[in-house]
Design a protein that fits this description.
Layout: E1 3-13, H1 15-18, H2 25-28, E2 45-49, E3 58-62, H3 70-78, E4 80-88, E5 105-107, E6 110-117, H4 126-130, H5 134-138, H6 145-158, H7 163-177, E7 182-188, E8 193-197, E9 203-208, E10 212-216, E11 227-228, E12 233-237, E13 242-246
Helix pairs in contact: 6-7
């Protein structure tokens, strides 16, 4: 369920990676090619981007399908950035959270997205939620599994974990508490990307001499340079390098 994408590189109009490619994230909202769970990503979408000189990203999110939002098309045509994270949300059960449930979630310099589902939600995740400080629970953006996953990751970031460790440890905790969960996570601070492949597809375009790297749920075109990330893997990337580290489930 869901599709997401992160880009680091030279400043470009957002549409170059989000709307223009033949199999762009916008098209993936109704015709994904490699989505294993769900079929239509119509329950919200969002994009976050960074402007030069400002470490805090801007966001544009809506509760409906991306294909019907003319404002998003205009935004993608004129806004330029060298760091972007965007997502389209799988059609799911009715809820009152609206656009608050749409990624990217944000705090300070961070943008975050979760592609997947916590199995047995919410009961299976209750022990992890109860271990968070009360004020962090009260800050939850929405009453969804993705919002709690973000809270777990953000708690680790605030405690000083680097992005890769924050994602990896959150995934291990969630997988132990809720076996069978799908936990593809995507995180950026505008200078680096961290992501996990855990139960769904994840691909990347390797770092390019121009200083560009893309990480996405699935390729947005037929470029032969796309590489699939093996399941149970942590990916970390900057504009000049990509590293893959195998993940093991917690034995606790």
């Amino acid at each position: 369920m869901c599709r997401h994408l992160a880009y680091l590189g030279p400043d470009i109009p957002l549409g170059v990676v989000l709307g223009d490619p033949e199999h762009s994230l916008v098209r993936q909202s109704w015709a994904p090619r490699r989505q294993r769970y769900g079929t239509v990503n119509a329950d919200g979408f969002g994009v976050g981007w960074y402007a030069a000189g400002d470490p805090v990203p801007a966001r544009y999110r809506r509760a409906g399908p991306v294909w019907g939002d003319e404002g998003f098309a205009d935004l993608c045509r004129v806004v330029r950035s060298g760091a972007v994270l965007a997502a389209v949300r799988d059609a799911t059960f009715a809820g009152a959270d609206g656009e608050a449930a749409a990624a990217p979630f944000a705090s300070g310099p961070w943008l975050f997205s979760h592609n997947g589902a916590v199995r047995g939600w919410p009961d299976a995740a209750a022990p992890l939620a109860s271990a968070l400080p009360v004020h962090e629970l009260l800050e939850l953006a929405a009453r969804t599994d993705s919002a709690l996953v973000w809270a777990l990751v953000l708690h680790r970031l605030r405690q000083g974990d680097d992005p890769g460790t924050a994602l990896a440890e959150a995934v291990r905790e969630l997988a132990a508490a809720a076996p069978g969960s799908r936990l593809n996570l995507l995180l950026t601070d505008g200078a680096s990307i961290a992501a996990t492949a855990w139960g769904d597809s994840l691909w990347y375009l390797p770092a390019h001499p121009s200083g560009r790297v893309v990480v996405a749920s699935e390729p947005y075109d037929d470029d032969t340079g796309w590489c699939e990330v093996p399941d149970r893997t942590l990916l970390t990337a900057t504009r000049t390098r990509v590293a893959l580290i195998p993940l093991k489930e917690s034995t606790l």
